[in-house]
Amino acid sequence: MSKILTIGANGQIGRLFCQKAKDAELPIRAMVRNDEQRARFEAQGIEAVVGDLEGDFFHAFDGCDRVVFTAGSGGSTGGDKTLLVDLYGAIRAISESEARDVDHFVMVSALRAEQPLEAAPAMRHYMVAKLLADQRLLESDVPATILRPGRLTDEAGSGRVRTSLAAGEGFDVSRENVAGCILEALRQPSTANRVVDLLDGNTPIEGAFAEG
Ligand SMILES: NC(=O)c1ccc[n+]([C@@H]2O[C@H](COP(=O)([O-])OP(=O)(O)OC[C@H]3O[C@@H](n4cnc5c(N)ncnc54)[C@H](OP(=O)(O)O)[C@@H]3O)[C@@H](O)[C@H]2O)c1
To answer: How far apart are the CA of 9 and the centre of ligand 1, in A?
Structure first.
């Protein structure tokens, strides 16, 4: 059976998603950055492959028909990594998905990525990277779900979200809820592109962003 390639599998959302996918018996392949991480995933019964978005990773796509992108350079590296990982790494993953006729690409983007100049000055270049990667995905032939979480927290997942940002309401969303939404996105038909804001809320994740 074709697999779901998870890029950024060793990240906080990535690990939560991989565990949920395994529990749901979905066929996944975790892309991680080194052999130690690979061994840890394999000890959990999750197939893993080593790949680096700044270098070689196209082999990770072999036998995969769906892709989850939840990698990120993080806040402790500079703008160079934002360009190389969040922007160019994502673009290369999208191009490879196009070349291989991937059926569904689920991108973890960021809330308000469409308005980088409204972000705090230190975040603007990151928002530009997210916006341009999202635009590349929407212009591609690959059916896409773009999830745009707000501020990530480590709270236990409530299993309930909001998909629009209303004035006066909070910006937070737990990483576990985001992981649950990736799983939900993969369960939906991938015929139309969707861009979905994600915040903690009251709507059960199941069906929270069904087409319709
Ligand atoms: N922080 C926020 O509030 C916020 C808000 C909205 C959206 N987001 C987005 O949410 C996503 C994931 O969040 P998270 O908390 O799970 O982040 P995280 O824990 O920092 O995970 C990021 C993952 O990306 C991997 N990575 C970094 N560089 C890579 C490269 N060159 N090649 C392959 N993989 C690479 C890391 O690998 P290692 O494990 O080896 O380091 C890590 O596993 C990111 O796309 C981020 O931009 C964050």
So the answer is: 9
9: amino acid identity, one letter: A
| Domain assignment present for 212 | no
Which structural domain range is residue 58 located in? 3-204
* Nearest-CA residue for atom 31 of ligand 1: 53
Look up residue 94 and give its two tokens: 């999208």
Residue with tokens 């990120």: 72
d(CA 190, CA 87): 23
Q: Tell me the per-residue pLDDT of 177-193, one tens digit each, with 9 for 90 and over.
A: 999 999 999 998 777 89
Question: What is the CA(156)–ligand 1 centre distance, in A?
Answer: 19
- Number of folded domains in the chain? 1
CATH number where 61 lies: 3.40.50.720
pTM of model > 0.90: yes
The per-residue pLDDT for range 54-108, each reduced to its tens digit, is 999 999 999 999 999 999 999 999 999 999 999 999 999 999 999 999 999 999 9
Q: Is 36 in the pocket of ligand 1 (CB under 6 A)?
A: no
Beta bridge partners of 4: 28, 66
